[in-house]
Amino acid sequence: MKPDVRKEVLTRLRSIAGHVRAVERMVDEDRYCVDVLRQTMAIEKALERVDGLLLEGHLQTCVADAFREGRSGETVKELSEIFNTARR
Amino acid sequence: MKPDVRKEVLTRLRSIAGHVRAVERMVDEDRYCVDVLRQTMAIEKALERVDGLLLEGHLQTCVADAFREGRSGETVKELSEIFNTARR
Amino acid sequence: MKPDVRKEVLTRLRSIAGHVRAVERMVDEDRYCVDVLRQTMAIEKALERVDGLLLEGHLQTCVADAFREGRSGETVKELSEIFNTARR
Amino acid sequence: MKPDVRKEVLTRLRSIAGHVRAVERMVDEDRYCVDVLRQTMAIEKALERVDGLLLEGHLQTCVADAFREGRSGETVKELSEIFNTARR
Known about the structure:
The structure is a homotetramer. By secondary structure, chain A is an all-alpha fold. Chain A has a single domain, classed as Methane Monooxygenase Hydroxylase, Chain G, domain 1, CATH 1.20.58. Chain A has three helices and no strands. In chain A, helix 1 (3-28) packs antiparallel against helix 2. The longest helix of chain A is centred in the middle third of the chain and has 36 residues, at 33-68. The first copy, chain A, is elongated. The mean pLDDT of chain A is 94. Chains in contact: A-B, A-D, B-C, C-D.
């Protein structure tokens, strides 16, 4: 992972961990379930943005290297698997 | 929120918070980006299962009450909004 | 289904059928795969908007009736199932 | 697009077009909205499988060529865009 991607991913994961703890408190305080649901869905969107960063970094480094070095088979399989998991 | 749903949601949120911290460590240790990506996507699936619990609880309690008491307009709007957010 | 929802859903489904045929032609003409992919994903979004209309209509009619008539159990199960299918 | 992928994609798109027409008939006959919704969601899944085929073909041909020929920048941008659109 490139240093700038890694730093950005870490910052976002820390913020997401804080968001999860805040939602735990909302449930503890028995807040309205739709408000809780809106927050859990917001966390999912935040995680999807992390996925986007990770994938872009992966394409720019590992995938580029794999294709240049003739190891494209495994990389294509991994990318297809990631794409299919992302949709499910 | 019904007590059993609340308890189950809390247990799952704690487990999800632990999972997020574990992924932070993976990034800190500069692990392979595809392995990190698989974990962030697994956390999203875990959060979606929490959404499912929250929604089912919401339908059984708040939505049932709202329809019985003739306050269905706002509830229908909220459910449509949740459904549309869930797909995006 | 309410007549206005039904009419709107039919109009959109006809437009979607035309879009699918247009994509078939693109594939027949061996167009760039990313352009084809953008179109199939656009059709999915169009179908999701139809889902949104169907669900909103369902909530305003069948669900409202079911809750008023004390048949909420089956309705809650159906809505949870729809929500979970929509996310997968 | 490789000939076998193209043939498979065309077969699936024709089946999807038939499925859309069948759903139009269901709406015309005023069938239960949840049954219609289940079918529109099934068509989305069928389209997502076409996306999977298109992407895998794209990775094996255009992407492989682009990386080998040093034109990786545009390809990385396209793949990131596809991934992000797929999640929305």
